Amino acid sequence: MRFLHRDFGPVRAYLERLAPPILMLDWDREPVTGGFAMLPSTLRRRAANVALPVGIDRVAWFADRGDGPSHAIEVLRYYFHVNSTAIGRPLSLPEAVEHIETVAADNEFILAGHPDGGLVSVSRVELSFQAGLKPITWWGP
């Protein structure tokens, strides 16, 4: 189930009430780094960073668009995995979405920042902070 959250309040309240472990991960397993815009041969790939434990304030920064328009770059670089049961190497966002929608625990979900502000949540079952929202079908990593 996928939902768009324009208001971070219900998400924040849920996270504050349950205080779950939140991990920040790279969208891609091998992100592009460096290089020059017109010279693709200068682009390099690196291994994804390890999952980094973060707090609610970091998630709020993504939801509130951080520092303005330049924030879109950060939004498209990282996502948050809450109550992760994934074992092994860090998952790319497409792998995490598949994991969540098929085998995740009931209280496990991911949050990804939306470039226009807000967050997209993905879960296997509807969670209390998603109640009343219409599921979206147009979003995908």
Which strands sit side by side, in order, in the main sheet?
A: 1-8-7-6-2-5
Given helix and strand content, the structural type is: alpha+beta
Distance between the termini: 14 Å
Percentage beta strand: 15-25%
Largest sheet features: 6 strands, antiparallel
Radius of gyration: 15 Å
Number of helices: 4
Unreliable stretches covering 5 or more consecutive residues: none
How many strands appear in the DSSP assignment?
A: 8
**Helicity range:** 10-25%
- The average pLDDT score comes to 85
User: What order do the SSEs take from the amino end to the carboxyl end, as H and E?
Assistant: EHEEEEHHEHEE
Shape: globular
Question: What does this entry look like structurally?
Answer:
This protein is α+β, with helices and mostly antiparallel strands. It is 24% helix and 22% strand. The chain has four helices and eight strands, in the order βαββββααβαββ. Strand 7 and strand 8 (119-123) form a beta hairpin. The model has no long low-confidence stretch (mean pLDDT 85).
Describe how the helices and strands are arranged.
Elements: E1 2-5, H1 9-18, E2 22-26, E3 32-33, E4 44-45, E5 52-54, H2 56-63, H3 71-75, E6 78-82, H4 93-103, E7 109-113, E8 119-123
Antiparallel strand pairs: 1-8, 2-5, 2-6, 3-4, 6-7, 7-8
